[in-house]
Amino acid sequence: MNFSFPPRLQRSFATSIMAAAVALSLTACAVGPDYVRPSMDVPASYKESGPWKQAQPQPIDSRNWWEVYGDATLNNLIEQANQANQNIRQAEARYRQARAAADAARAGFWPAIGVNAGVDRALTNSNGAKLGNGYSAGVQGSWEPDVWGSVRRSVEAGDAGTQASAADLAAARLSIQATLAQDYLQLRITDLLKDLYARTTAAYTRSLQLTKSQYAAGVALRSDVALAESQLKTAEAQAIDLQAQRSQLEHAIAILTGKAPSGFNLTANLATSSADTQMLRKMQAGLPPIPAGLPSDLLERRPDIASAERHVAVANANIGVAKAAFFPALMLSASGGFSSSSLAQWFDTPSRVWSLGAALAASIFDGGLRRAHSDQAIAAYDVAVAQYKQTVLGGFQEVEDNLATLNVLDQEAIAQNQAVQASQLAERLALSQYRAGTATYLTVVTAQTLALNNERTLVQLLGRQLLASVALIKAVGGGWDASQLSGAERTAQAKNSTTN
């Protein structure tokens, strides 16, 4: 079957094609500012970093940074959280949502094509009343060329938004991992405290038996026995209170790993000595020195900073979308098909119908709506820039805070360890003197209380060091960097540049 247009219509068709070609050439233009990352004054180094750092800092594995603590149980718990934590699943869903929105924006580059078919029965009065059937089928298409770059700016915003969501997902993972690591390490510190109190109550029980023996022999007062009993019961009460803290930490860990607390249990790791290095060994977790890097590195290594920067890019692209509304829109359309009162005549030449068209539309007066939208987009950009800079400053503060904390705690641990050794010696001497009858039991109680307080402080100090080290890892991004944004976004950007 031969299908051709009359010469006059062919010229019209050629004119429309030329207009479309001109429109395509204009799509290289995109109104609005091109994106430039906001500039910041970044210091050359951190104020709190210095020669106090001991040992060689270990590089952080972006995938498994928690393995620097050398605890297999912690590794397993974090892997469970990565798979089952509901906050992480929410962030993953938001990422998929943002990616779909970017794909929807990219669809604006292409024409919309549809088909139709219909049958009707109608009464007409032209040339006399006539009742008849009508049959039609056709295809139609329309396309609005991206003359002023509105679609391209929308795609830029969509891609940047997808990258922001990818960074938010990384930030959510890092936050959950850090929180779980801190809760777990604090639980192990509580186990150490429970073990300390178990050893302490055993020692106090022996002291009570000593005072009872001394009292029975007539060389001690009844008040010594009462004092020993009071000291023992106080230690037992404090040990019981630790169980509440441990239970709460265990419940928190269960929720972070996506489990109900009723079906979750962590057995205790018991220590045999209160010495700092042996406690670390019993916990199977070292105190790793963490490389803080340079302040400029933080702009690429923290996912929350990367997200804030991508939101600035979104706001910048939205300015172009708003400004494109000031210019006229060009719409190209075409349709073709068949329409006949008889199916048998469908493919005859008189039954063929087609149309080509181009329309240019622009708003003359809108009461300031477009200007308001443009001002709104510019203000939103200013908000995003301020949020980005504040996020960067907050990141600097977190790193400085944790560097300072680790610095001070490192020095404090040395002094506290010496205090523990001195108080343990004083306790042994006081007991020896009491047995020899050259000291009162009050001297023994004072020495034992001081030894317990110093050992408890040392354990708590270890816990603060571990928590601060996790906080520093989180503050420097946990080994993450901006190059780890999903390859899907980079592919989307490549498609965008190729299309335009």
How does the SSE layout of this entry go?
Blueprint lengths: L6 H20 L45 H13 L1 H21 L5 E13 L5 E14 L6 H67 L5 H35 L19 H7 L12 H7 L1 H22 L4 E12 L11 E10 L7 H68 L4 H35 L11 H13 L1
Antiparallel strand pairs: 1-2, 2-3, 3-4
Helix pairs in contact: 2-4, 3-4, 4-5, 4-8, 4-10, 4-11, 5-10, 8-9, 9-10
Question: What does this 3D model show about the protein?
Answer:
The structure is a single chain. This protein has one domain: Outer membrane efflux proteins (OEP), CATH 1.20.1600.10. Helix content is 62%, strand content 10%. The chain has 11 helices and 4 strands, in the order H-H-H-E-E-H-H-H-H-H-E-E-H-H-H. The protein has a 4-stranded antiparallel β-sheet, with helices on one face.
List keywords for this structure.
disordered N terminus, 4-stranded antiparallel β-sheet, alpha+beta, disordered C terminus, 4 strands, Outer membrane efflux proteins (OEP)
Number of domains: 1
Global morphology: elongated
Low-pLDDT runs = 1-11, 51-57, 271-277, 488-500
CATH fourth-tier homologous superfamily: Outer membrane efflux proteins (OEP)
The CATH topology turns out to be Outer membrane efflux proteins (OEP)
- Helix fraction by DSSP (H/I, runs of at least 4): 55-70%
CATH architecture: Up-down Bundle
CATH class designation: Mainly Alpha
Strand order of the largest sheet: 1-2-3-4
Portion in strands: 5-15%
Radius of gyration: 38 Å
Rounded average pLDDT: 82
The helix/strand series, from N terminus to C terminus, equals HHHEEHHHHHEEHHH
Secondary structure tally: strands = 4
The rounded distance between the terminal residues' Cα atoms is 38 Å
The major beta sheet can be summarized as: 4 strands, antiparallel
- Number of helices, counting only DSSP H or I runs of 4 residues or more: 11
Structural class: alpha+beta
